Amino acid sequence: MSKRFCILLTAILTGLVFLSVGTLVVAATAEPDKVIEIMNEGYTKDKKGPVAFDHMAHTKAGAKCTDCHHEYDKDGKNVWTDDKPVEKCATCHDVNKNTEKDGMKVMKLQNAYHKNCKDCHKEKKKGPYKKCNDCHAKK
Ligand code: HEC
Ligand code: HEC
Ligand code: HEC
Ligand code: HEC
């Protein structure tokens, strides 16, 4: 290999490394393009199977990030924006019991998921998937 070629190759590879680091940083808050599996641990009774969740199908159907992702300030205003990191629902919603934060009721995890997912599917009649095993994989 000629010396010049080596320098060129090094330059290209270095460029690639920077590019992929850049992509990683952006991807940290971008919508996942793969179906994610919702399967939290710590439920006293883990009765149902995991839930496959397709982000793209939802945003294509018109759901906004803030229909599901939030961070409430003291006045109960959702101040989460999609340049902020996404925390797991379980970070704030206790797996087994309702809690309180700044005078706000923070419902336990199962109820939080069900209210979020099912309210939109059922009451607003926006989504067709309502039965337990439309969402939950069989155990
Ligand atoms: C629209 C989707 C959806 C539907 C419909 C749904 N669930 Fe869930 N459910 C979820 C999600 C998401 C979770 C969180 C899963 C996790 O954390 O592992 C969950 C969690 C649970 C949990 C606690 C976790 C566990 O595995 O024990 C139970 C129990 C449960 N669901 C029962 C039901 C039952 C019974 C029905 C039908 C009456 C139902 N769900 C319908 C989405 C759904
Ligand atoms: C219909 C509800 C819904 C919508 C709309 C939605 N998300 Fe999510 N998102 C979720 C759920 C549920 C999880 C899993 C949370 C958990 O594991 O506790 C999640 C997880 C994520 C994660 C972390 C993925 C991982 O594998 O850990 C990122 C990043 C994310 N969402 C970004 C976005 C962005 C950006 C948008 C808008 C373009 C968006 N989401 C729209 C429900 C939604
Ligand atoms: C940073 C902490 C935090 C995270 C992360 C979080 N929540 Fe919440 N959530 C709260 C708080 C605090 C409230 C109470 C708000 C109020 O009473 O005004 C709440 C309220 C709710 C409510 C009831 C009010 C409403 O908006 O309909 C649902 C449903 C809910 N969360 C579902 C979820 C789901 C699903 C996820 C994950 C995708 C999630 N939450 C992630 C803190 C959080
Ligand atoms: C803002 C409204 C809204 C919320 C919130 C919502 N969904 Fe949906 N969901 C829809 C719509 C609309 C469709 C139909 C999408 C389509 O036909 O492409 C759908 C489709 C689905 C499907 C079947 C299609 C697929 O590609 O996966 C599943 C499973 C599902 N949702 C699970 C969930 C779970 C789990 C949650 C909570 C974490 C949730 N949804 C929250 C509106 C919503």
How would you characterize this protein structure?
It is a single chain. The chain is mostly helical. It has a single domain, classed as Alpha-Beta Complex (Cytochrome C3). Helix content is 39%, strand content 9%. The strands form two sheets. Strands 1-2 form a two-stranded antiparallel ribbon. Strand 3 (99-101) and strand 4 (104-106) form a beta hairpin. The protein is globular and about 65 Å long. One heme C (HEC) binds next to strand 2, helix 2 and helix 4. Residues 29-32, 36, 38, 53, 55, 58-59, 63, 65, 67-69, 82, 86, 88-90 line the site of one heme C.
Query: How would a textbook summarize the main sheet?
Result: 2 strands, antiparallel
Q: Which range best describes the helical content: under 10%, 10-25%, 25-40%, 40-55%, 55-70% or over 70%?
A: 25-40%
Percent strand equals 5-15%
Radius of gyration using CA atoms only: 21 Å
CATH topology: Cytochrome C3
Q: What is the CATH superfamily label?
A: Cytochrome C3
H/E topology pattern: HEEHHEEHH
Second rung of CATH, namely the architecture:
Alpha-Beta Complex
User: Ligands bound here?
Assistant: heme C
Which residue ranges are poorly predicted, with pLDDT under 50 across at least 5 consecutive positions? 20-27
CATH class: Alpha Beta
Instruction: Please give the number of β-strands.
Output: 4
CA-CA gap between termini = 58 Å
Q: Taking all residues together, what is the mean pLDDT?
A: 84
